[in-house]
Design goal:
The protein is α+β, with helices and mostly antiparallel strands and 621 residues long. Helices cover 46% and strands 11% of the residues. It has a five-stranded mixed β-sheet with strand order 1-5-3-4-2. The protein has a four-stranded mixed β-sheet with strand order 9-13-14-10. Strands 6-8-7 form a three-stranded antiparallel β-sheet, with no helix packed on it.
């Protein structure tokens, strides 16, 4: 039977929520709907049916069959005093038909507005002079949401139409807003193969020459300092952190140098004999240097008592709570006690004026963008300053390597894969070494039969290192190789038949850079028992491989995969014997948390990632 309806104006006070409404599940906040009704009135009528009493007579009230959210929004406006409770509302009054069928029809035949149409509507309002805040208020959305939609105007009309036709997603479209160069946008989209058209790949292709805002140099000086100095940033409003890309690398480097020089001047005024600024502070900076250590001083009675009390309280809480406590106040107290123990322990270590007078500091940047200060170094040939008792310091040379700790085969394979990922990234940047690697591999096969082998696989294969562990995807080397893969994919022809002619047209430097990339991808993991292990060590030595740039001990990469004793050995070696003793009584979960915090400022590496103590002769550089 056809449903009969009449449209009647009914007062809001006489409308009640329908108990048989098909929409049973809440679908989010009413804020947007309230804002729309406030700005535009009730655009869609309510569908109602008279409420009858037990005798079947009308009661004067009406049950809402379709439109309960609109009713709730209207009542919220009435409660706020923005509309009267007896406001007349246009309603479809039903006298026949099935309530469920009618409610279902109204809620299923509607189609959400396409974001492209929404963008054009917002854009038209903005062009007509309506402010962003007003647009947001009228539709119950945030000003950021409106800005994001309006920013789609930066995308090429050709790509915008492709989005409208379903040839790309909204995520693809948003990735293109990082630049306003329509020609470059279209070039990147057309050059990328279908399998590699990811939003992240698009952003990387459009910002290859820029510096991401989370670069450690940016973290050191602060993005605000860079912008205040006149630096420009390509903003990405679709990034949840509203990050972007810095477009003036020279300015960034100048600001970083000034920041490090300021720190050097401060250390000089404290009495250090010399300072040396080395932003990329790796093992090469310590060549020819010998380290001395601060004098151990007794704490005052007051500080010693405070330290004993803090350690006792820390141990008690750690014993009572197996894992990180769920109670925020207990977790906060454990953190406070740990900080207090660190503070008081640090008071025991003092750089004396005698040590400062003959020693210096190296200043660089940690991987997380914080200042890194290596204090207490002197030239190996210089005589050390006398200690407090007038006796010269004992010069034991470089620290002896710690005894090897047995790790599981699975973790060892994962660490070797991390080293291989780092070697690949380093070789990619050294076309000269890539050429030596290739010649070395071919010469071994042609001239030699003594069992030596290379860590290079010249079949053009590239082993997926991520199969060795779930942390490999976070290795900077893995990311660098993936970015290079995307860049070369853009430059090389889509058809293999066109490759030869393309390569013939390349300059020598381009061919060498491509060779370096392809050679790097062909490096294989060299395990301890592998015949290529010695060659991999030679390669690492030639490249001065610094694994601290590629790997850090974290719960995911190390602590969560080894025993308590191995964790304590790492703390003992990288921090101090006292630090390991302080943590020894902790349960494993708490130990992992505190070991991670204590070792965050160190450059500790497990044996599998260290440079060989006595490496063979390196490859000719």
């Amino acid at each position: 039977m056809t449903t009969m309806t009449t449209i009647t104006d009914l007062p809001l006070a006489k409308l009640v929520p329908g108990k048989r409404n098909v929409r049973k599940t809440a679908t989010g906040s009413l804020d947007a709907l309230i804002a729309s009704i406030r700005a535009h009135g009730l655009i869609q009528n309510l569908t109602v049916r008279p409420v009858l009493n037990k005798k079947g007579s009308p009661t004067g009230r009406y049950e809402v069959i379709a439109g309960n959210r609109r009713l709730a929004a209207l009542k919220a406006l009435a409660e706020a005093g923005e509309i009267a409770s007896n406001t007349a509302l246009p309603c479809h009054v039903l006298d026949t038909g099935d309530d469920t069928e009618i409610g279902l029809a109204e809620n299923t035949i509607r189609e959400a507005m396409h974001p492209a149409d929404q963008f054009e509507a917002f854009h038209a309002m903005a062009e007509a002079g309506t402010g962003i805040e007003d647009i947001a208020a009228r539709f119950g959305v945030t000003a950021l949401f409106v800005r994001q939609r309006l920013k789609l105007a930066r995308v090429s009309p050709v790509l915008f139409e492709a989005y409208r036709q379903g040839e790309m997603t909204l995520d693809h479209l948003m990735a293109f807003t990082i630049t306003q160069d329509h020609a470059e946008q279209e070039k990147v989209w057309n050059a990328l193969p279908n399998w590699n058209r990811h939003p992240g790949t698009i952003r990387r292709a459009l910002t290859m020459e820029a510096i991401p805002s989370d670069d450690r140099r940016v973290c050191l000086i602060g993005l605000e300092t860079y912008e205040a100095a006149g630096g420009t940033v390509q903003r990405d409003l679709f990034d949840s952190a509203e990050g972007g890309y810095l477009t003036d690398p020279a300015l960034l480097d100048r600001l970083v140098a000034e920041r490090l020089e300021t720190e050097a001047e401060r250390l000089t005024t404290e009495g250090w004999a010399w300072t040396r600024v080395v932003p990329d502070l790796d093992h090469r900076a310590f060549d020819g240097l010998v380290r001395s250590y601060p004098a151990q001083m007794d704490l005052s009675e007051e500080d010693q008592a405070a330290l004993d009390t803090a350690i006792e309280a820390y141990d008690t809480l750690a014993e009572q709570h197996d894992e990180t406590p769920d109670e925020p106040e207990i977790a906060a107290e454990i953190d406070r006690l740990s900080d207090e123990i660190d503070r008081l322990t640090a008071l025991q270590q003092v750089w004396t004026d005698q040590i400062k007078a003959s020693h210096g500091c190296l200043i660089g940047i940690h991987w997380d963008g914080t200042l890194r200060i290596e204090a207490g170094w002197r030239e190996r040939h210089e005589t050390p300053a006398p200690a407090n008792d007038g006796e010269p310091e004992t010069d034991t040379g470089d620290e002896a390597p710690a005894p090897s700790r047995k790790l599981s085969p699975k973790l060892t394979a994962e660490l070797i894969a991390h080293r291989t990922a780092a070697l690949r990234a380093e070789v990619m940047q050294r076309p000269d070494i890539a050429l030596v690697l290739t010649v070395h591999k071919l010469a071994l096969q042609h001239f030699y039969r003594d069992g030596l082998t290379s860590s290079l696989d010249l079949r053009g294969a590239s082993e997926d290192l991520t199969r060795h562990g779930d942390t490999l995807s976070d290795n900077p080397g893995t990311g660098a190789m993936a970015e290079a893969q995307g860049r070369w994919q853009l430059r090389l022809p889509s058809e293999a038949s066109d490759l030869w002619d393309r390569l013939l047209g390349y300059a020598d430097t381009d061919l060498m850079n491509l060779l370096a990339f392809l050679t790097a991808t062909s490096l294989e993991p060299a395990f301890e028992s592998s015949r290529s292990k010695r060659h991999a060590d030679q390669l690492a030595e030639t490249l001065d491989l610094d694994m601290t740039r590629y790997w850090r001990a974290t719960p995911e990469t190390f602590f969560g995969k080894v025993t308590k004793s191995t964790i304590l050995d790492a703390v003992r070696e990288s921090v101090s014997e006292a630090a390991a003793e302080n943590l020894a009584s902790l349960k494993k979960d708490a130990l992992i948390d505190h070991a991670t915090a204590r070792m965050a400022e160190t450059d500790w590496l497990p044996d599998a990632l260290r440079r060989p103590a006595d490496p063979d002769t390196a490859l000719a550089a």
